[in-house]
């Protein structure tokens, strides 16, 4: 039972490692947030200066700057899939989508490409 006496040391080392990883993630997240906020502030300040100086900003550019200055939480969610597109099921997400030949490729062309790929691999290994 020599391994039992090492259990506290294993738990302590796992706790210290976990704490270190958590602190590192928190520090990186804070750096990212700080950089994002600095960029947003810079964009807004430059836009305010341009508007106060009387410069005309085209609407397209103003919208682009406004979107850049917004936080990710304020951005609108992407539109739902169009009615012509199929919804992706969780089974396809987890197991992958079955490869179906598209309209431009037939099954024979897929088989030919696979055969060429295998042939090239065999030739490269020789």
Mind explaining what this structure looks like?
The chain has about 130 residues and is mostly helical. The chain is about 65% helix and about 0% strand. It has 4 helices and no strands.
Topology overview:
Blueprint: H1 7-52, H2 59-69, H3 90-95, H4 107-125
Helix pairs in contact: 1-2
Strand-residue proportion? under 5%
Helix and strand element order: HHHH
- Total number of helices: 4
The separation of the N and C termini measures 54 Å
- Rounded mean pLDDT score: 82
Radius of gyration: 28 Å
Low-confidence segments, ≥5 residues, pLDDT <50? none
Tally the beta strands. Answer: 0
Shape: flat
Please estimate the helix content: 55-70%
Major sheet details: none
Helix/strand/pairing class, anyone?
Answer: mainly alpha
Features:
single chain, 126 residues, mainly alpha, flat
Give a concise summary.
With 126 residues, the protein is mainly α. Helix content is 65%, strand content 0%. The chain has helices spanning 7-52, 59-69, 90-95, 107-125.
């Amino acid at each position: 039972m020599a391994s039992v006496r090492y259990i506290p040391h294993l738990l302590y080392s796992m706790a210290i490692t976990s704490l270190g990883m958590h602190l590192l993630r928190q520090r990186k997240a804070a750096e990212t947030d700080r950089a994002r906020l600095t960029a947003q502030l810079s964009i807004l300040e430059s836009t305010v200066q341009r508007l106060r100086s009387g410069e005309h900003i085209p609407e397209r550019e103003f919208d682009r700057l406004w979107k850049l200055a917004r936080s990710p939480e304020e951005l609108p969610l992407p539109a739902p899939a169009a009615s012509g597109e199929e919804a992706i099921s969780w089974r396809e997400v987890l197991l992958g989508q079955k490869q179906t030949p598209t309209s431009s490729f037939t099954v024979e062309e897929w088989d030919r490409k696979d055969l060429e790929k295998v042939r090239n691999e065999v030739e490269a290994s020789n």
